[in-house]
């Protein structure tokens, strides 16, 4: 019982801090995207390709969560965008406080789009609100079509499902219609983007959708007279 209370208190504190992050995103007109998914689903590769396509049009910054190492941040900063690596030292997800502190290390002036690459995990990140605008799950055909059925919270909480590594489809047993119908059952309005970050197939649809949302966010800000 004690433990249940502790978890409830922790999630309460998290949602307060998530509210602060959300307020900051609103005030600055920043579209924030929380990228979640298994280790190896290709979250960082997707980020690299997305930054290559959108980086000339928009100010982009990235917060990366990993249990250890700064390898992902090294990959991202080589593309010339600001990034902050959070090492959670064992924690299996980012929380709103970690993201808030990481944002203090970024110069948010001119940032239109903030990516938050969560720790590779299909369970814990779904339980923590970071104050983000969009939760996106990255799955891959190599990871199998059973992920939505096995991790329903993640797939029902998100607004976007990206199915990566489409180029591997001829080499793996992946039942596409099963995957799609399981996702739709959990989350009928979800945006679905099958793509390959490696070959670029399907990337344009994802990038267009994202770019439209960034523009929309900036428009909302000017309506409010900032
Ligand atoms: Mg990564």
How would you summarize what this structure contains?
With 226 residues, the protein is an alpha/beta fold. The protein contains eight helices and seven strands. 43% of the residues lie in helices and 18% in strands.
Summarize the structure in words.
The chain is α/β, with parallel strands linked by helices. It has a single domain (2-212), classed as Rossmann fold, CATH 3.40.50. 43% of the residues lie in helices and 18% in strands. It contains eight helices and seven strands. It has helices spanning 2-28, 43-54, 71-77, 96-104, 147-150, 152-157, 176-186, 203-223; strands at residues 31-37, 60-66, 82-87, 113-117, 134-140, 160-164, 191-194. It has a seven-stranded parallel sheet with strand order 3-2-4-1-5-6-7, sandwiched between helices. The protein is globular and about 45 Å long. The termini are far apart. Residues 43-44, 72, 117 line the site of magnesium ion.
Q: Helix count?
A: 8
Ligands present: magnesium ion
Unreliable segments of 5+ consecutive residues? none
The whole-number mean of residue pLDDT values reads 94
Secondary structure category: alpha/beta
What CATH architecture would you give?
A: 3-Layer(aba) Sandwich
Main pleated sheet = 7 strands, parallel
What's the total count of β strands? 7
Radius of gyration: 17 Å
Outline: globular
Count of domain modules: 1
CATH superfamily, by name, is P-loop containing nucleotide triphosphate hydrolases
* Fraction in beta strands: 15-25%
Distance between the termini: 47 Å
- CATH domain class name: Alpha Beta
Residue share in helix: 40-55%
> Order of helices and strands, N to C?
HEHEHEHEEHHEHEH
CATH topology name, in short, is Rossmann fold
Strand order of the largest sheet: 3-2-4-1-5-6-7
